[in-house]
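User: My collaborator sent over this chain with a note saying "see what the structure looks like." That's all I know about it. Can you take a look?
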Amino acid sequence: MTLNGFDRIAFIYDFLARLVFGKSIINSQKFFLNKIENHHNVLILGGGSGWLLAELLTIRPGCVVWYIEASEKMIGLSRKRVNSDASVHFIHGTEANIPPSIKYDAVISNFYLDLFTDEQLKEVIDKIISSLNAGSQWIVTDFVESNKRWQKLLLKLMYHFFRITCHIGSQKLPQWNKTILASGVNKTKSEVFYDGFIETALYQR
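Assistant: Without extra context I'll predict from the sequence alone. Here is the result:
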């Protein structure tokens, strides 16, 4: 993944997402937050502008969070949202920068896996799973393949937009659900939003 690729749209990213997907983009990401316990060490990958981080710390103020984000400007926005809370460790990077000395009780990766090709995805997923404790939960929210023409067109337009503005390498949605399950973790619950175009899933190691 290209570092700082999302810097150009950091200031408007949340607005664009809400403009297209309305409350679905927010409700899907919040859906399983209550599954995280107050004492958990939490890893957030690709947290964006930090609104979800602020939400998590509101309902689970006892969590310690490692917040990994590839955009420096997104990290800046996130720091402001939580007033540089001492319980949050901000890391500029990707899954390659997950601290190897820490095992996490919960991981959140929302609209993160769609940035990779199918060829890259297995390595990314293995890296994330290796950072989990036994029994840890992984919350994944992302787009899913659809037979609906308007959703196929919207997905194609989104990839075209992000290739131009953020220089992402992928050109189509990878099979993230299938690849996660093939890694040996269990899918315990899931919910769909926006007419089935967005899925949030809860996995357990």
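A starting point for your reply to your collaborator: The first helix runs from residue 13 to 21.
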